[in-house]
Design goal:
By secondary structure, the protein is mainly alpha-helical. It is built from 15 helices and 5 strands. It has helices at about 5, 25-40, 50-55, 65-80, 95-105, 110-115, 115-125, 135, 140-145, 160-180, 220-230, 250-260, 260-275, 280-305, 310-335, and strands spanning about 10-20, 45-50, 85-90, 155, 190-195. The protein has a 3-stranded parallel sheet with strand order 1-2-3. Helix 5 (about 95-105) crosses helix 9 (about 140-145) and helix 14 (about 280-305) crosses helix 15. The structure holds tryptophan (TRP) and iron/sulfur cluster.
Length: about 350
């Protein structure tokens, strides 16, 4: 991406993805489709948050680099366009860490301790020993990720709102402490741009989520996808082929609502309730539609998968542009704090 044409777009938008595994169709229908639209209208910075992955995976960090690569391939396959946005990996921009250290000096512990995700995840993931400094500081690192680019909008899900709130609070606190003599606030308070929750259910009808083990990977092996959909639960009332069912009680119907034409949906409604069709038959169009969607994504990712140097080039250029921007803010921050190089 050359530096001049990103500056044409109206607002700056930034978001990150923790790289703890390849992305799934829930991420696609929720987050990524949103990014695909934003990239045409705004100056977008999207990054793979590998340090944030480390906060919970530090006991087993060997996989994070591979996951980071998978996530980047997922983005590119889905159509996130490196000619329209700046794509980079967090750890390639050490300025985030430098700002994190500086912000950590002014952030009261109590602000971090009361972040709801901190308490929830610490109890949920008990086996992971999350009584670490890094985990407590997770949302402050996120604040540094954000504030260093002075973006207007942060597209995130509902679960991230408290982190954006903390980010705003830290920005205000910083400006109050060090920015009194400046004509405009040095750190800008960003707004959360709430991503509509994805309509994509998981294989079991609950929200599609890695922690529920009910996902379909964005570029998952077709044979595996077929197997997963074939063994998906259906309306429990349909024990025998001759038992009528109720689509509203079946996760497969939710997939039809996303993937099927009105005609096919009608065929399901009538056929299920009259036991005119069997569940295997009913799943067939879903399998086809999912495979077709994934084929497009997999094909688009393929050249990058085959030639890792293409990905390296994109990420190197992304990090260059990101660092240029990050460095500028960091220099202002240091000057405001009176940190000078002797
Ligand atoms: N915490 C975010 C999540 O779990 C990931 C993230 C890290 C992020 N840094 C960010 C999101 C900065 C937006 C902006 O989804
Ligand atoms: Fe579900 Fe289709 Fe079987 Fe009805 S026929 S229970 S909608 S899979």
């Amino acid at each position: 991406m050359n530096d001049s044409n990103i500056s044409d777009k109206r607002h700056r938008v930034l978001s990150g993805t923790r790289t703890t595994g390849a992305l799934h169709l829930g991420n696609y229908h929720g987050v990524l489709k949103n990014w695909l639209e934003l990239q045409h209208r705004h100056q977008c910075f999207f990054f793979a948050a590998d340090w944030h992955a480390l906060t919970t995976e530090y006991e087993n960090p060997a996989q994070i680099a591979a996951y980071t690569r998978e996530v980047i391939l997922d983005w590119l396959g889905a159509g996130v366009d490196p000619n329209l946005c700046t794509l980079f990996v967090q750890s390639a921009v050490p300025e985030h860490a430098e700002l994190h250290v500086l912000l950590s000096m002014i952030t009261p512990l109590s602000w971090l301790e009361r972040v709801p995700t901190y308490k929830e995840l610490r109890t949920q993931l008990k086996e992971k020993h999350l009584a670490t400094y890094g985990f407590l500081g997770y949302p402050l690192l996120q604040a540094a990720d954000i504030l260093i680019y002075k973006p207007e909008f942060i597209p995130v899900g509902e679960d991230q709102v408290s982190h954006i709130e903390l980010t705003r609070e830290v920005a205000r606190h910083f400006n109050h402490l060090y920015g009194k003599n400046l004509s405009k606030p040095l750190l800008q308070e960003p707004k959360a741009l709430l991503t509509k929750t994805s309509k994509m259910p998981g294989l079991d009808g609950r929200k599609m989520s890695k922690s529920y083990h009910n996902t379909l990977g964005l570029r998952e092996e077709p044979s595996q996808v077929k197997h997963k959909i074939k063994t998906m639960p259906t309306d429990p009332a349909r024990i025998r082929r001759s038992d009528p069912g109720e689509p509203e009680k079946c996760p497969v119907w939710r997939f039809h609502q996303i993937y099927s034409t009105a005609e096919t949906q009608e065929w399901v409604q009538v056929g299920c309730r009259s036991a005119g069709i069997g569940c295997i038959e009913c799943k067939r169009p879903v399998i086809e539609a999912v495979l077709q969607e994934q084929t497009v994504i997999r094909d688009k990712a393929l050249p990058y998968q085959k030639d890792p140097s293409l990905v390296s080039d994109i990420l190197r250029e992304g990090a260059r542009v990101a660092r240029q921007n990050a460095r500028a803010t960091l220099d202002e921050v240091k000057a405001a704090m009176g940190i000078v190089t002797l």
